[in-house]
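Revision sheet: structure tokens.
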Amino acid sequence: MMFADSSPLQKSVVQSDFEMALDVTRLVGLRWSGNLATGIDRVCLAYLERYRRSARAVVQHRGIRRIFTKPHSEALFDLLVEPQVRFRRRLARLSPSALMASREKPACGGAFYVNVGHTDLDRPDLAAWLRACDLRPIYMIHDLIPLTHAEFCTQRATSRHRARVDNALMHACGIITNSESTAQDIRQYARCSRRRMPPHAANWLAGADFQAGDRHAPLRGRYFVVVSTIEGRKNHFMLLQIWRRLVETMGHTAPHLVIIGQKGAQASHVQDMLDQCEIIRHHVSVLSHCTDAELGNWISYARALLFPSFAEGFGLPLVEALQLGTPVIASDIPTFREIGMNIPTLIDPLDAPGWEAAIIGFTGDCAERERQMLGLARYRAWTWGAHFDKFDAWLASLRPDRQPAAQSDVADVSVGAAVSAGVSFARVRENAASRPRMEGQKG
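Predicted:
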């Protein structure tokens, strides 16, 4: 069978009338809630736009899964990419006929099942369903942060993500990552947990198609912008402490800080400072709801995008700022060294004095900001077209008649062994992070 750990890919005998089953469960939830898209949501939307005319829709709910017919798939895809006006009502009209026409376990003839949103990848029954449908799973793993930086996650989030990664390593026909940094983390985890490493490819993501600011600046005076969910891992608290010092020393001439993002986990101390620190009240703004057009405008006119995160799998705001011609001050972490193309100013996320000095310098036209401006004039962003060209070519190489023997550095072992390997994995990762890395490498 195609899920045998030693050889996950075998040629199917039955042929289906489609080659891809695209899981859109995450997008259904996004549209139903009315929330703004996060980074992973943006990736799901990009895949939907690319394959909506050829793929079939997969929807999951608590272990119940359905593959929609072609007409119902097209109707659902259209609904997901259109504005959210009356989405719930329109989905409620579509669902009964779509569910009645679908089958629980249709014969899919070896089509690819593509899940780029982590949806239910942790569920132990997913692999059996895919095997019963004769689907070959392709998963995108966006990061290993709950495993490498568990201090920023709940125990439940860490446990769920470990199950996602373990299931992907055991059963995937192929794994795609958003960066070589993430791919390296997965390879190290596979070695430390003594699991097979499936065929995999690192493939950079593309930023949103923002237009450079063609309107008036959204704020008078100099300002810096942060674009991310407000959570402990993103290091907002350090920036707020820096802004307190800036206001204390510069007074009303201090620059403004604009935080664009919704509140997330481990953010109570950030919220407390925003609510109770009178000194920064008139120099820090939080925008929890921002359209793409507004976001592009805010980034375009900023003195710099600030990205002091402790860990990232990719970092869409960084590349979006670069493609808009806005300088970036970011953490000196492997991912940003990889995708920054030697342009951003990289500083240790724990070096608060270094961040403060850089922000003060970027308030004016310092030499480092001028260096970035020269680099930005030559910057060419990675596009979704390039991403999907690479993805399609890689996917074609995984077809059964072209697939070589499965990649496997080590034998498979139990989930318990993978859990016990956590300390070794963290140690190997720390050692690897200290080695020199090639900058400017495309995924």
